[in-house]
């Protein structure tokens, strides 16, 4: 049994670094591609958004003197680089990816539209949304929420290096405990850093569930799609 028929998978740019300090770890990229193809072969419709923090983050650039708008545009381009890398890795394992960009840059990628995305998903292609929302001041978390809502995904999967949402940062606080389920309001009230507030609010207002899990452990994506409770579900 498949728990979700259509998913939006959000991956962080930092996760693509693997053990590196910068850029893309080819082994991590191949590992992700294998996991994604595995669930696509199960009949799951897969759409993906990747951050760009392994290359450039607009907000951190602004703190170092970059114009915020130009910094965010640089961050958008970083997500395109990551999207092309994942597309190539997916092709290498026999999958059929399609890169759609939020700003026009043919022939690097096709300009996004909901119709194109749904046609590709229904045809069994893996759709990669890049360049965020195409607008500055919005994170790729918000871009993920927006695209998940637009394509009417069953869930937004947030793949991280942590196996769910905790009462505190488990890497800093050994006494932190993990939630199996949590509401959007609890995230606000506890000031938990799951996603930025804009992204979380969009999901709440449009009743888009979020599932946070450890993507860095091979086989975990399949476990989520099989309905195994290995992460944390966020819902109303």
UniProtKB/TrEMBL annotation:
Activity regulation field: Inhibited by UTP.
Q: Which terms in the GO cellular component ontology are assigned?
A: cytoplasm
Aspartate/glutamate/uridylate kinase domain segment(s): 5-214
Q: Where does UMP bind?
A: 52, 72, 133-140
Q: Where in the cell is it found?
A: Cytoplasm
SUPFAM superfamilies attached to this UniProt entry = Carbamate kinase-like (SSF53633)
Family as reported in the entry's similarity comment: Belongs to the UMP kinase family.
Q: How does it assemble?
A: Homohexamer.
Tell me the protein's name.
Uridylate kinase
């Amino acid at each position: 049994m498949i728990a979700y028929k259509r998913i939006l998978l959000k991956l962080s740019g930092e996760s693509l670094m693997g053990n590196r300090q910068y850029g893309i770890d080819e082994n991590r990229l191949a590992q992700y591609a294998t996991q994604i193809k595995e669930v696509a072969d199960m009949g799951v419709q897969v759409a993906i958004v990747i951050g760009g923090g392994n290359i450039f983050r607009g907000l951190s650039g602004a703190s170092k003197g970059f114009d915020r708008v130009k910094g965010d545009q640089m961050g958008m381009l970083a997500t395109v680089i990551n999207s092309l890398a994942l597309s190539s890795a997916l092709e290498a394992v026999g999958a059929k990816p399609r890169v759609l960009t939020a700003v026009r840059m043919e022939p690097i990628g096709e300009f996004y539209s909901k119709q194109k995305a749904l046609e590709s998903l229904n045809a069994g292609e893996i759709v990669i949304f890049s360049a965020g929302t195409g607008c500055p001041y919005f994170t790729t978390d918000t871009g993920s929420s927006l695209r998940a809502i637009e394509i009417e995904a069953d869930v937004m999967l947030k793949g991280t290096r942590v196996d769910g949402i905790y009462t505190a940062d488990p890497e800093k606080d050994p006494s932190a405990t993990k939630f199996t389920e949590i509401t959007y309001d609890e995230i606000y009230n506890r000031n938990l850093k799951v996603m930025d507030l804009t992204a979380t609010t969009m999901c709440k207002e449009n009743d888009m569930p979020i599932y946070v899990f450890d993507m860095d452990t091979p086989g975990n994506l399949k476990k989520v799609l099989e309905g195994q409770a290995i992460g944390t579900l966020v819902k109303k």
